[in-house]
Amino acid sequence: MLDSISIAERAIQAVSRGKLSYCKFLSANDTGDTGAHQAGIYIAKNAVSILFDTPGQRGENKDRYVKIRWQDDFETESRFIYYGTGTRNEYRITRFGKGFPFLRTEHTGDLFVFVQMDNDDYLAYILQTEDEINEFLNAFGMSPTDTGKIIQKEEIPSETQVDIAIMEFIRTLEVDFPASAEMSAMARKIYHQVFDHEENITLDPDKEIVSWTEMEYNLFRKLEFDRYGDIIARGFTTVDQFIEVANMVLNRRKSRAGKSLEHHLSAIFDGNRLPYESQPRTEGNKRPDFIFPGGDSYHDTAWPSDKLVFLGAKTTCKDRWRQIINEANRIEVKHLFTLQQGISAQQLDEMSAEKVILVVPRVYLDSYPKEKRDSIWTLKKFISFVKEKTGG
Q1: In the predicted structure, residue 1 carries a pLDDT above the cut 60
Q2: pLDDT over 90 (residue 141)
């Protein structure tokens, strides 16, 4: 029955069937959490093909009307519009009708999945919980940094410097899939080999961690295609064989996501010569992601508590941010790094009440409510704070 299928599963199935698909986190600007007049859902320029056959031209507006079915439940007669006059140069979806439930402030940070089924017929899904969001992202081997663009369902061969470097690495492997830490390290190595910007570890760590995460996704997808492409092309002789391969792929994608972020953060901290320990034991056998300067200092009662810093790391944080609150009792104020693009002002107020400070890559700040951005830290600001606290 349809009711027994989760929204995430419906979205996954729709993307698998559809012609083109796109996903993004709803920003504060989309939902009206900025206090500004809502102008609809912003669509990135790199995804214009899901809206129009040809890009808009500066100096003129263009639009068209389509049917969108939301959550497999209700339809809207909506409008795709390109604003090309004046100072505007952007694509949006507008006209959702009176009482439309999803462009409200509480939906900031939800994942919007948009699927073109036919020329004028679309399906749309709003994934509201971390479980739904991560189930969808894992199904396509994506991280939060891979949103805001057309979803790549199949590997597309190309001959860029990145692709050549990745294939050279894959040919040297003596195992099907290397350990998570090795994958993350190789993603960083390939990125620096191709783009030669290793200095950004200290100069622009916010840009660096997003670039590394995107590179690892690219590497992982190409490795999957190399390992499973022929099997999938040949097809499966039994349903059990298909399920076995599908589960193997999905489980590997799930286990990679969280570890990847921790590995890249560690590399950022190493590059900035910060003293830290990852996964130290604290009260109740808890294991926070990072303690600065380390676990020994944390357990040394002579070490001042105000010289200790806590950082949790979660790829998304809509629901599970509360998990960090009791992970290190000596540290009153907790910091939490995330790749989440936007959450509501109400959730940020709840974090503040629990003395949790959100840390996000600088490029994602604009997706948060404008009046709350000053309370959100960039990774570079966090690094400076740790240096000050630990005397680095």
Answers
A1: no
A2: no
* Full-model pTM: 0.89
DSSP 8-state assignment for residue 27 = P
> Where do runs of H (alpha helix) occur along 272-294?
none
Out of 91, 122, 298, 368, which one is annotated catalytic?
Answer: 298
E-strand spans in 240-350? 277-278, 290-292, 309-314, 334-338
List all residues 6 or more positions away from 227 whose beta carbon is below 8 Å from its beta carbon: 176, 177
Strand partners, 111: 25, 127
Cβ neighbours of residue 85 closer than 8 Å, sequence gap 6 or more: 59, 60, 61
One-letter amino acid of 155: E
Told to judge if 298 belongs to the known catalytic residues of this protein, a careful annotator would answer yes
The two three-digit tokens of residue 75, written as one number: 């339809």
- Sequence-separated (6 or more) residues with CB below 8 Å from residue 72: 2, 10, 123
281: helix, strand or coil: coil
Non-local (6+) Cβ contacts of 362 within 8 A are 206, 207, 378, 379, 380
